[in-house]
Design goal:
By secondary structure, the chain is α+β, with helices and mostly antiparallel strands. The chain has helices at 63-74, 81-98, 105-119, 121-131, 137-154; strands at residues 11-19, 24-31, 37-43, 50-52, 58-60, 102-104. The chain has two domains: 1-44; 45-154. It is 48% helix and 21% strand. The strands form two sheets. The chain has a three-stranded antiparallel sheet, with no helix packed on it. It has a three-stranded mixed sheet with strand order 5-4-6. Strand 2 (24-31) and strand 3 form a beta hairpin. Helix 1 (63-74) packs across helix 4 (121-131) and helix 4 (121-131) packs antiparallel against helix 5 (137-154). The longest helix is centred in the middle third of the chain and has 18 residues, at 81-98. It is elongated. The N and C termini lie far apart (57 Å).
């Protein structure tokens, strides 16, 4: 592993523990040259899962791309980075159990929206606006009204 500070390739592992529901290993490392400490993660590489886009094209499923979308939706919201990782784990585990080679992009988007709807409604609307490609304010209003409708029944 190359040190991010001095580029030395020799380091020692100081601490190692499982994270993300035992699906990854977090390692604290120390460079033997400059003593800089850094963290690495080791996880299972899921091969071959392709996302089928709306236009029929296919691309490799990239976890970091989904993480980026979640981070944008949850920006300045009371959702921690650990929460986001948990959401990602839940979505990826669900996809792995239901799909072997290809997954429609709408399934991924709906899975994320189902999680966000229960966690943070603002993050949900933000994500939905991109996923559903809202064209104007009336579409935002309709989505918000869907969120408010169940609440009216509870009062």
């Amino acid at each position: 592993m190359k040190c991010p500070k001095c580029s030395n390739t020799e380091d020692k592992v100081i601490d190692s523990r499982t994270v993300r529901s035992d699906s990854a290993i977090r390692r604290r490392r120390e460079c033997t040259e400059c003593a800089y400490r850094f963290t690495t993660y080791e996880e299972i590489v899921r091969l071959g899962l392709k996302v089928v886009k709306r236009d029929g094209s296919k691309e490799e499923f990239i976890r970091s791309k989904l993480r980026k979308g979640l981070e944008r939706a949850c920006e300045n919201r009371p959702v921690s980075s650990d929460d986001i990782e948990s959401f990602l784990d839940a979505v990826v585990d669900d996809l792995d159990s239901k799909f072997d080679k290809e997954v429609p992009s709408d399934v991924i988007g709906q899975s994320v929206m189902d999680i966000l709807k229960d966690v943070d409604e603002v993050a949900y609307v933000r994500f939905a606006s991109v996923y559903k490609r809202f064209a104007d304010v009336s579409e935002f209003r309709q989505e918000i009204e869907k969120l408010l409708t169940p609440r009216k029944g509870k009062r």
